[in-house]
């Protein structure tokens, strides 16, 4: 498929990875935001709704013809579609419980998937039976970073998980292997979560803003010389 020349000129070193997104309306909205932000590519893992399903097409409002979309990828082959030196960032704070118990209620910190959090508790309870010194390697250790701090110094890929199951363990492992982090969008206490399409839009346009600021600084530095 060929894409409009205007769109290609505005593509950014910013990718989106959709992880088990099953709601067609959400996926369509996310694709529309990805096209608007200038994403260079959208990758869909196995388990996502078909990008060409009619409800997705309707919600995307033509985004399919403005941003390259790769469907039905498994986690073993997905890295082949990432540019060299890409860092993968995960829009997820389900693991805050395991990382740093900042609050009795993990949902105080933003986007939380209760089922993922329950699964995390279950795994940790099982790990309590491990012998001293045994590994908990099943859970990658990723630093949590606020979404508005700089994360676009290298080509960046953002993982957005579905609202039912959250992001997968494989996405966390990929982020860890590329030197990425968790990106946290803080919300006020009492608000359980953000819709996945809203979270994706916030992160993509924040990435676009950061890249624009970096380009402006670079241009200014060159003019001084």
From TrEMBL:
GO molecular function: RNA binding; RNA methyltransferase activity
Keyword Methyltransferase: yes
Keywords carried by this UniProt record: Methyltransferase, Transferase
Pfam families the record matches: SpoU_methylase (PF00588)
The keyword Transferase appears for this protein: yes
Domain tRNA/rRNA methyltransferase SpoU type: residue ranges: 14-205
Highest taxon above the source species: Eukaryota
BP terms from Gene Ontology: methylation; RNA processing
Protein name: rRNA methyltransferase 3, mitochondrial isoform X3
Species the sequence originates in: Zalophus californianus
